[in-house]
Amino acid sequence: MTNQESKNYFQMETDEVFADLNSSRQGLTEEKAQSRLEKFGSNRIETQMGPGIFRIILEQFTDPLIYILLAAGVVTTLLGELIDTYVILAVVILNAVIGFTQEFKAEKAINSLAQLAAPKARVLRGRKPREIDTHQLVPGDVVLLTTGSRVPADLRLFETTILEANESALTGESLGVRKQTKPLGEEDTSLNDRTNLVYMGTTILSGRGKGIVISTGRETEIGKISESVKEIRQIPTPLQVQFIKMGKLIGVIIVALSVMAFLLGAVIGLPLSEILLTSIALAVAAIPEGLPVVFTITLAIGVSRMAKREAILRRLPAVETLGSCTVIASDKTGTLTKNQMTVLTIFAGNKFYKVTGTGFDPEGEILTREEEEKEALENNRALELCLRTGLLANESDLAFSEEKGYKAEGDPTESALIVSALKGGLEREEEENGFEKLHEIPFESEKLYMAALYRCREGEHYVFVKGAPEKILEMSHSAAGSQEEKPELLDKEEILQHHTMMGRRGLRVLGTAYKKVAPEVTELSREEVERNLTFLGLQGMIDPPREEAQEAIGQAQKAGMRILMVTGDNQITAVAIAQKLNIIPSHDVPVLTGKEIDEMEDDELYHKVKDVSIYARVSPLNKLRIVQQLIKHGEVVAVTGDGVNDAPALKAAHIGVAMGKAGTDVAKETSDMIITNDNFASIFAAVAEGRVVFANLRKVVFFLLGTGTGIIFLILFVLLTGLPVPFLPAQILWLNLVTNGLQDVSLAFEPPEEGIIDQPPRKKEEPIISPLMMERLVIVGLIIMGGTFFTYIWQLAGGAPLEEARTVALTTIVMFQLFHVFNSRSELISIFRMAPLSNPFLFYSVLASILVHLLVVYWSPLQFVFRTVPLTPLQWLVIIPAASTIIIGIELEKAFRRNITKGLPVVHLPGLRQVSSKVNLQNLASYFRKLK
Questions:
Q1: Against a cut of 0.85, is the pTM above it?
Q2: Which of 141, 154, 331, 678 is the catalytic position?
Q3: What would the pLDDT profile of 714-771 be if each residue is shown by its tens digit?
Q4: CATH of the domain at 749
Q5: Residue 141 annotated among the catalytic residues of the structure
Q6: What is the spatial distance between Cα 680 and Cα 333, in angstroms, rounded to a whole number?
Q7: Would you say 385 and 480 are in contact if contact means Cβ atoms under 8 Å apart?
Q8: Contact 199/221 with Cβ under 8 angstroms?
Q9: Whether residues 753 and 773 fall in one domain
């Protein structure tokens, strides 16, 4: 596609624009349009092609632990244990199917979202209005805009009639932008302030207009953002990084153990066949064959739990990332706020009033601010007229449906005035029947007001005016009092002070006024409107914060996360909302605006982001730079957003969170997670689930590696004694894939432990195997080794055949596993304080493991496969007490750790993440020396 020349069309007169684009107000001819389509290409934003089905399948096998699993399959094949080979292959295929299904569904869902783009545009072609496919638009086309239409390309407006656009998807500006046609003077005007342009993907709230296409496809503002998104490389999640490191570590350990066993065997003088058998047994014991599967299942369970909390994950590893987040950079409009303008305060008749209720639902009342008593309109003429003016001098509407409830149609600011009037007691139908509209002067930015002429039922004519308070006061000569037809002196200075005070609270303030005119006046003129008005009052409104968001922010801060507000709204509104949500304290705090960020080098911004929590009037590039500098600080960053302007930052962050209701297709496509109810509280719920997922992953790893460590210690110890290997490779695979495989999956269903969300976020470089786990693995390994060696040598010393001694050793390990899985449920809490059925899956998995092992011991077909013999009751009476020592040993070790955590200062220690950790000062030095 040939690049379209970039010019500042917003600075040009409309005639200059037409001349530069070789077009006219009547549009292009078909011949010109076709020629330009060939030159500039289709008006499409090319989406990044997702991976094909074959590539998605291949990616399921590009995991270090999958490599290890496949290596185990090769080992069992070489040993002739084909049944074990088939089991391993089944596990690999199951893992691939789960991963493929999850990723393919996500890609399919996102592709279907892309179909929601507006397919048609109304243009003038050959002087006649026509409807064409949007992708056929070219520079120079004249597009017709009406209320509710989606802008199909970037346009320079040349005709407008009360045209207002919702540009929040692109700029983050929560309020509608009133458009005009005059050229703008400043060259560096931000997108938010280019009021004579409309942009692709934005929508028309009200009015109508005409514009000439100045950019199409990738040259539009949205297209440029999409192109930049493609260039951003998605960074791996902290869990992915640590998982890869753990896989490599296990691989190194496997090789080292095999070499060690081989050398020891050679030194001791064992036959080569015995040395090889021992080396293979060690390798098989060290491979946690079930780990890739249980990792996938644990993440999938987290995905399922998050879906119930209105959070849809697009990538499995992202399920844990929120749990380790240290910073959440959130958009304001619709995420922290309701995205529903609401009148909170009214000043009328020298009194302030409080308006209850939020959003567009007219449930609520108008109360006196001091006494908080309901105000009757018959007692306050000024308040009644103020509300009536907001209702009648209005170009928007308020709609209701059973599915969506109340919704603004047109400018949400004007819809808020309708709602406040209904809360005050005005009946909409009665007002419309009692007042007939004769004429109106629509709002324009240069006038700063709108006026409507009405004839009331008694035949009198009234002009109702609303607009910027300064302008309304300028046109007024008196003020309405609380009593009928008794105007009062107008103190403009006092009212302007009230206006300033309301503005400091982040309220958008509109003034109202009226006048009575002669019955012969049937049409308004500016001269008629702009003099001798009676001032009625002020209505202050805001997009209110979500109540549940405030609670969630408090919990997130308690959990050690910073909350940042990154918005396209103005600084005053951003600070006011941030204070209401307790993101920042009430006193003065540093705020960075997009313009200030543009003037900073990356190094300066790097130092600023440590202390700034509020960013206002930011551009897409500003938001991206903020995220990049936070990541440089080592933060794990989550970014929320719904607009195209959020897409670069969503992709650059560790986890991008898009809004499901208000979110644009581009935002959803570049995100890792979609919040279906657009609520920050759901994001925090996902944080809690993420922490549970990681905690459960650690429990699974500890359980699997614990028994593996015991087997390794045992084999090495037996090797030094010169005794036969206590297990055959097939028996170890049985342990790892079947008895382990039932219980490790059940640990993925563990409920959250008390206090887990109150812990600080884990550091992204913190390994899955924590220092505490390493220490405890050694303890577990020694206990399992000792208990199993005892039963094994007991049988050999008593003259039992080798197969019987191996069966006793195998059963001892199985029983150790059954007891050890309960130890794995918590790092510090005693198993005797945990309800056995709080995780029913675990309880039933233990029963299932016992049953399947009994089959191996007593059912002849499985006895043949695994070379086992039936056990006697006496052997069981020795095996079970020996295996139960694992509970005694770990309970004593837990009690010791709990004892050293009693004291006054609160200090969070690595590895002690599951409960609050209070550490006595005299124990700190020795504890950290031990960790080191």
A1: no
A2: 331
A3: 888 888 887 888 887 777 767 766 666 678 888 888 888 877 777 778 777 778 888 8
A4: 1.20.1110.10
A5: no
A6: 11
A7: yes
A8: yes
A9: yes
